[in-house]
Amino acid sequence: MKIALFIPCLVNQMVPEVGIATLELLEKLGHQVILPSGQTCCGQPMTNSGCFNEAKKTTLKLLNAFKGVECDAIVCPAASCLVAAKENFHEFDDSPEAQAVIAKLYELTEFLHDVAPIPAFSKSFPHKISLQMSCHGIRMLDLATPSEQMGPRKNKFEAVLAAIPEIEIVYPDKLDECCGFGGTFAVDEGAVSAKMGKDKAQAHAATGAKYAVGFDPSCLLHIDGMVRRQKLPIETRHIAQILNAVL
Amino acid sequence: MSTSKSNVHAHKAEIFCKDESRVDWHSKALWTLREKRDRAAGSIPEWEQLRQIGSEMKLHTLTHLTEYLEEFEQNCIKNNIKVHWAKDGAEHNRIVHEILAKHHVKKVVKSKSMLTEECHMNPYLEERGIEVIDTDLGERIIQLAEMPPSHIVVPAIHMKKEEVGDLFHEKLGTNAGASDPLYLTRAARQHLREKFLSADAAMTGVNMAIADQGAVVVCTNEGNADMGANLPKLQLHSMGIDKVVPNLESAAVILRTLARNATGQPITTYSSFYRGPQDGGEMHVIIVDNGRTDMLKDKILAEALKCIRCGGCLNTCPVYRRSGGHSYNYTIPGPIGIAVGAQHDDTNSIAWACTLCGSCSYVCPTKVPLDKIIHHHRRLKAEAGKLPYGKSNYMPLVGKFMASETALNCSMGIARMALKILPGSLLKPFSGAWGKYRELPVAPNSSFEAWFKKNRG
User: Fold this and answer.
1) To the nearest whole angstrom, how far is the Cα of A168 from the nearest Cα of chain B?
2) How confident is the model over B43-100, as pLDDT tens digits?
3) Computed over its alpha carbons, how large is the radius of gyration of chain B?
4) What is the mean pLDDT of chain B?
5) How confident is the model at residue B1 (pLDDT cuts 50, 70, 90)?
6) Contacts with B39 from chain A: Cβ below 8 Å
7) Dist CA B90 CA B95 (whole Å)
8) Distance, CA of B43 to CA of B328 (rounded, Å)
């Protein structure tokens, strides 16, 4: 397939290794991958704060970067940014061209589970990993059944990773409680955000896992800052990095 | 209320967070309720259907509110119940006082009403020489401590049993240092029994008002609504306009989810239906609007009125559990408190006391889309020029900054460089709340875009 990468500002500027892993793994899977230019931010920091006027220019800039780009799918390695982009594009532009872009948007895990599954892994990953079930991915993108919901359960995130030979998957206590990042919440409500992050980092470490693995780089960056402040014996990894290592 | 920094949620939460062991204890106590809720909800296979039916039933009632309220009133009148209408809290309090004054009431026993808290009724009546005694154990504890409730179902959840022991020693004369819950509960029961026997009138909130029956339902675990309503000849019930449901079948749906979602019980110990005064007595129902009609005008805010006040959203909320109920600047705290209270919050901060994680919306037994309502409140506040402290200054700058590749690339390039070459201690003062609590990110050598150009360009 021909895939256009949607690389959010946080990944581009602060964790390029997540972008590189995403690109490499998609290429290993036989896809043609392009990076449309002109992407900055999805507008989420502004719209989440209620500031829709302030978000408009940024959001439309991102949308325009994808308009008319020839591709089968637009893939993003950050669930929260993907959800925000979808909603914000729709908010500011409901033209057929915008709809065409929205219809092609996929979060990486979602893409690998629903659209183009990984046929086989070339290596094993003999480690214990603790899954970081970030809120927007599970509750707004349907990557997994949230713990509050009763009835049959599904978990696309676990399903993609569980196929790796020798991998051991565990969950932290309060498995899908918010880590406390919440965009500008981390700054505006510093004390509560930090306490939530601390609890989450400790819960991941308490599983004895080598890595806390997630699909949302922003949550991982926050948890990583907490892990290092607490000197906890665990490291954070993005799902793309784990998958890229075994392909 | 002043809009100074000291009143904003973040500041109050920061103070609450200073005692970390108390935060852990508070969070754990509430999470235990969430776990009990999960077990209770999971024990009935039709849980998700009940949520859907509850949601649709409440929405249906809200969209036909006038008809159902009129039907309720007509049936109440047939049942010899006196019905009063109050447009706001002040009118509610005036009506209640008039009824009580007419009967020369000096002492009222009250049970289960967040609405009277919302209307600030207790101080109003006390100023007019009427003693109001909250009879739910938790309510009585905070009344004795002269505090507002910090939770809608477990209002004294912020107090440890030792603190309750000290309070009871001072106010009720229990043994000094006693903290055994059984001993303290017995002491409270004896104290309340005297109050029940000597009260001139009883007052309760309303969990549901059943339109086709002309009856109100009050749910308690301690039986105190019944103790109150069955002793004195005069009984009053205050309800919001949103409490009406069409019939017994719809009330049954709520009865099945309410206690399960609140405390994990299959049903509250006492679910009492009042359908008329006792012989020779009087029963009054006061129906209160207090801003609810305004909320109905906004399609998104209107859904908050589907709430049945189980408190499930508070128990699951990671922010509420770590910041405490008193940090919200509104009678009702937590997600539902923001949903129904943000418009009354002069500090314009509680709408931002949320990570928008969405757990509350999935826990809710009537599917109130709490995270969407909170998000909507932020937008309404922003449009009204009421952004909270700090945000109004930096948000327009962030908007401009993010829209410019040049500005973003240049400044982030400098930031990466700074993170690499400068010692952390030098950077921390410039990194705000992030660096205060967390280690700063390890900076990469270049942006992804630059890497891509070099390796795939």
Assistant:
1) 26
2) 999 999 999 999 999 999 999 999 999 999 999 999 999 999 999 999 999 999 999 9
3) 25
4) 93
5) very low
6) none
7) 9
8) 33
Half-sphere exposure of B160 (CA within 13 A, CB side): 12
Low-confidence ranges of chain A (pLDDT < 50): none
* CA separation for the pair B273, B251 (Å, rounded): 11
Of B378, B432, B449, the CB nearest to A12: B449
Dist CA B99 CA B130 (whole Å): 12
Question: Can you say whether the dihedral through the CA atoms of B16, B17, B20, B24 is positive or negative?
Answer: positive
The Cα-based distances of B354 to A192, A195, B149, B318 in angstroms read 10, 14, 20, 9
Please tell me the predicted confidence (pLDDT) of residue B4: 59
Nearby residues of B425 by Cβ (< 8 Å), 6 or more positions away: none
Task: Answer whether B427's CB lies under 8 Å from B438's CB.
Answer: no
Residues of B in contact with A148 (CB under 8 A): 38, 316, 359, 362-363
Q: Is the pLDDT of residue B413 over 60?
A: yes
Determine which of A148, A153, A175, A238 to mutate to test the interface with B (most B C-beta atoms within 10 Å).
Answer: A148
Distance in angstroms (rounded) separating the CA atoms of residues B362 and B312: 10
pLDDT single digits (tens) B285-295: 999 999 999 99
